[in-house]
Amino acid sequence: MLRLDELRSAIQGEFFLQEELKKHDVKKVDVLADIIIKPAGKKDLVKLLALLQQSGFPHLIINSKGRVVFPEKRFQGAVIVTDLHL
To answer: What domains can be seen in the chain, in order of their start residue?
Structure first.
């Protein structure tokens, strides 16, 4: 299982725990996320996705303009906030 301290040591960027997406300028999304991760750049985003996929940790990617519908207004997993393109 992937641990938060492992993610923080492998990825440059900002990490927030138990926060609402609207506090991070994500428009049209009213949801509480377990983890919000804002990678510092494209290389960190690619590395982050690989780590999350290998561990099986639920995650999604959303940009600041995205419109996403969450069941029960809650997502249990990591939310990656970025405007970077893969």
So the answer is: 4-81 (3.30.43.10)
